[in-house]
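so my prof wants the structure for this chain in the tokens format not the other one, which i didnt know existed until like an hour ago. anyway here's the sequence
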Amino acid sequence: MITVRPGSHMYRLLCLLSVSGEYPSKSLDILGDERTIKAMVHKMEAVQNIRLYLDNTIITTKIFNISGKSDMRTIRLYTNALDILKEIHPDAFGYYKESFPNNKFSGDQFHIRRKHRVGESIAMCMMADIETAPYILPELQKKSIRLVIPKTPGYYVSYNFKKIYEAELNKIMFTRIIGLLFYPKGCYAVYNTRDSVMKWSGMGEIKARQEMSEIVRMNAGLNEVTSVILFGTDENIALRTLIDSDKSKKKQVRFDRIYNAIHFVPLDQNGIELLKILTLPDWHEKLMSALFSSESRAKGYGSIEFDAYRDNKYYYSHFDGDIARLIRFKEALQNQELSFEVLCFPWQIQFLQGYLGKAASLKTIEMPKVMKTLGIDD
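here's what i got, hopefully its the right format
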């Protein structure tokens, strides 16, 4: 007998599928111990007796349907098991039925890959304690300027934007943006490049940013969207993306010209912890205050990107994974003969060595130490 209990692996996957509809089998490790979760999913592909936690009734059905091969292997809910969604929230079942009519999904590879990118981003946010459920989050609107977003971090996936402006959906439907992540006093556009070099759509992404800025202005009291969370499988993808951007002949539509900050977040436990940092209120000021004394910190803007100066050495922090700023930093170093030290997490060092070479020395600080200083429970 299986009981659906809050906090269990199955409960977590049900919450995820209630929003994303499907999820890539190869990315179950984001949700916890991969071996344990895969065994659970495999078991739930067979008919089981399921005890519903809320009303103590029993249903006999399988829960998950898995189809496809290799990267296209996808996890979906079995049609006869949809009532189980009522276990996670009273409105989850209704939202799912409206979003995925008749529990039917496209077999087209483009649509599956996009759903997988969305699903992985939802999983990352869920594991970072960010609310992702549209049936819990306040609904966004474009009628008047008012504070709609919650006081705590919340992630809105892109296909819910069509409820705001159906007629203007074509402004974002062909771009790679997959959502908006709000946090106190800030917002990120969200992209997921997975295991491929990020290819930006140039003017299409600029138009999408303008449209997202309008949603942010109407619902969060912010002027525009200037920052991005860019998910990817690992730091090698970040390195390849930067090297590819260096070759771009159209600098005006390069991603670091579209957005001021691009925070690369790996699709793993390190990325989950980084998300917790990046969604703190005033996270940048807290991070800089934790790292450097007020006397040593950079004042204002100059020709060189740096965060502090002491003992005849410049210091630059890459803890936030901002690759757009890193491009500006590297470009400024080319004509300088100054001493620089870059601070980073251990898992970022290979990427920085590959991109910066010997232009600056690197120093690592363990992530738990930084998180403890910021008051985040690991």
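also thought this was worth mentioning. The radius of gyration is 22 Å.
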